[in-house]
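queue> pop job 88
queue> type: inverse folding (structure -> sequence)
queue> payload:
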């Protein structure tokens, strides 16, 4: 497998237009969210704007997912369902000359039999885990040299999720995960404390901190918890935030999936899953008397609402801030510079 270089050198270039809002590519190398599995029905063709281009995606009758460019390699027809692309017997059928493609992108049939020369659709490597479908984007179409974590359900609940279109860049949204000093001011967290130094290993970054925060549906019905938070990043499109409140036995997994749509906008997906609470009476005495299913459902909804409220507090800042190449950071904010060095590997093109 080819290594993605980590330093800029004479034979690499950054793909940036001169009027770009950011001094780096709008489409960094990496894995990006495409869809939740439950929305990808077998034998249905979908299309969307993803990483600055139109893509189509579908699941064949064996359950395998394909994400590909929407342009037919034969003579350039648009393969999207809105323009006549369709699926028949698990194969994608082009609306122009009827060529048929399998999930690997190979043209397996034309109206007059197998193609005389190989015809291949440009597909993107996919990864499906825990009910989430991702695809890998590289400007040269290179194969991935790294992956994203296993999201298998196990004793986690299904994901609850929502999304927003925001005018920003995945580097900006990811930077939030290491910008500890904005947590009290924007989100109102108290007693913010770093638990361990930032860990950066190739395309993986982890950050560990503790916060104290109020949780509850209203000021009257609320409780205060010490929460240990681990932030795990893979590239810039995948962040997983894992808050744990040991005292009450609360385990939450939040995804922040930031996928560029075009050069200016991202689709920002917020997803959450929880484990069943272990000690509900720590929150409110007598809470354990509630039926467990109902209680866990109710808590999941509350945690999701809190997560969306917290993240949406960042939206207007992300949409309107200017990226400063030389920010005036204090001594306690040096992790932001380490994060930016981590980001360089995703902007470089061979
Ligand atoms: S352009 Fe698609 S089959 Fe000809
Ligand atoms: Fe934030």
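queue> result:
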């Amino acid at each position: 497998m080819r290594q993605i270089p980590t330093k800029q050198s004479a034979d690499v270039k950054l793909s940036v237009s001169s009027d770009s809002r950011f001094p780096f590519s709008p489409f960094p190398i990496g894995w990006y969210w495409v869809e939740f599995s439950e929305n990808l029905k077998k034998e249905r063709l979908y299309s969307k704007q993803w990483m600055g281009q139109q893509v189509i995606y579908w699941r064949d009758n064996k359950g395998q997912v394909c994400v590909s460019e929407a342009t037919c390699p034969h003579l350039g027809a648009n393969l999207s369902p809105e323009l006549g692309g369709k699926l028949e017997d698990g194969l994608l059928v082009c609306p122009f000359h009827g060529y048929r493609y399998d999930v690997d992108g190979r043209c397996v049939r034309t109206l007059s039999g197998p193609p005389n020369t190989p015809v291949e659709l440009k597909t993107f490597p996919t990864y499906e885990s825990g009910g989430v479908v991702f695809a890998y984007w590289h400007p040269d179409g290179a194969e991935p040299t790294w992956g994203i974590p296993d999201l298998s359900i196990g004793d986690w609940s299904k994901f609850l999720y929502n999304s927003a279109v925001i005018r920003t860049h995945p580097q900006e949204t990811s930077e939030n995960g290491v910008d500890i000093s904005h947590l009290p001011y924007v989100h109102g967290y108290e007693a913010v404390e770093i638990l361990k130094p930032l860990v950066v290993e190739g395309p993986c970054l982890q950050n560990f901190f503790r916060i104290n925060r109020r949780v509850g549906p209203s000021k009257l019905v609320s409780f205060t918890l010490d929460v240990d938070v681990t932030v795990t990043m893979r590239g810039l499109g995948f962040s997983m935030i894992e808050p744990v409140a040991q005292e009450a036995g609360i385990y939450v997994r939040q995804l922040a999936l930031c996928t560029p749509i075009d050069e200016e906008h991202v689709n920002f997906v917020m997803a959450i899953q929880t484990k069943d609470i272990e000690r509900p009476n720590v929150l409110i005495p007598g809470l354990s008397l509630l039926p467990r299913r109902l209680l866990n459902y109710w808590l999941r909804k509350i945690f999701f609402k809190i997560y969306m409220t917290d993240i949406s507090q960042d939206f207007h800042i992300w949409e309107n801030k200017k990226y400063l190449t030389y920010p005036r950071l204090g001594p306690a904010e040096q992790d932001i510079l380490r994060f930016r060095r981590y980001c360089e590997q995703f902007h470089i093109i061979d």
